[in-house]
Amino acid sequence: MVIDLKKKAHELRLDILRMFYLSGTGHMAPALSCVDIFTTLYFGDVISWEKRFSEERDRIVLSKGHACAALYAVLAHAGYFPREELLTFYQRNTRLGGHPDIGLPGIETATGALGHGICFATGTALAAKLDGRLYHTYVVMGDGESQEGSVWEAAAFAANQGLSNMTVVMDCNGLQASAYIEDISSIEPLKAKWESFGWTVLECSGHDFSELIQSFEHAKATERPTIILARTIKGKGVSLAENNPAWHSRAPKGEEWDKICEEYQIRKEELTRL
Questions:
Q1: What is the domain-level CATH number for residue 230?
Q2: What confidence tens digit (pLDDT) does each residue in 23-49 have?
Q3: How many domains does the chain have?
Q4: For residue 170, what are the CA distances in angstroms to 4, 55, 139, 173?
Q5: 115-134, pLDDT tens digit by residue?
Q6: Confidence band (pLDDT; 50, 70, 90) for 112?
Q7: Cα–Cα distance between 163 and 74 in angstroms, integer?
Q8: Structural domain of residue 158, as residue ranges?
Q9: Is 149 exposed, middle or buried (0-12, 13-18, 19+ CB in 10 A)?
Q10: Which residue, among 34, 20, 10, has the nearest Cα to 234 in the 3D structure?
Q11: pLDDT tens digit string along 11-27?
């Protein structure tokens, strides 16, 4: 399983690079840090695969909407829309904009303003509980996003309602839009904060598939809402961008692509086609 997931994650990163090569804009580094999380969710036997197109599907919400390239790539590979459509990312008349929109199959809600995705997800989890339905709601959010007050309102409400059918994965890469989080407004101690709100808190590497799978399995077995603090590297897979605040909202240019192609052992023309 782990070998298959590593291969799939590599394929997804290549498609994400193609998207940014052709568009020349967007948030590449935030997308790369959560690729392995999405790979595990969709291809690691976490969600109910056979129900993914039905009303009983598990709900997956990307709260850090600017990282949508990762979600688009995984949705295409999971059969929600043709993979060829990835080549239209961030271009005129595309369905694949800079933030996800509900006009695209697989998108549960539009997200952009940070702190809103977890609030929406709390509603879907509560609805499932009230209706006696068995689907699980997953949220992928950023760590810098937890500076938003709405995150903590949702956290308090989810715990009070006993929403054990809700799992949040926090993409903990230590960076936000313009700098390191600790240099702007520290959010630690995250584990203690979420525990104090009544959540089950798990910690793992966000790039280790075995740890991610184990965490998701544990989350399903708890009687409280769960948050997985997944420690990641922003820009993972592109050394120029890794852990570098300057790469939050930009795509590579010029000779930077030569270095990336060398890293991935591909020719630049391969970035123009699937």
A1: 3.40.50.970
A2: 999 999 999 999 999 999 999 999 999
A3: 1
A4: 24, 26, 8, 9
A5: 999 999 999 999 999 999 99
A6: confident
A7: 27
A8: 2-272
A9: exposed
A10: 34
A11: 999 999 999 999 999 99
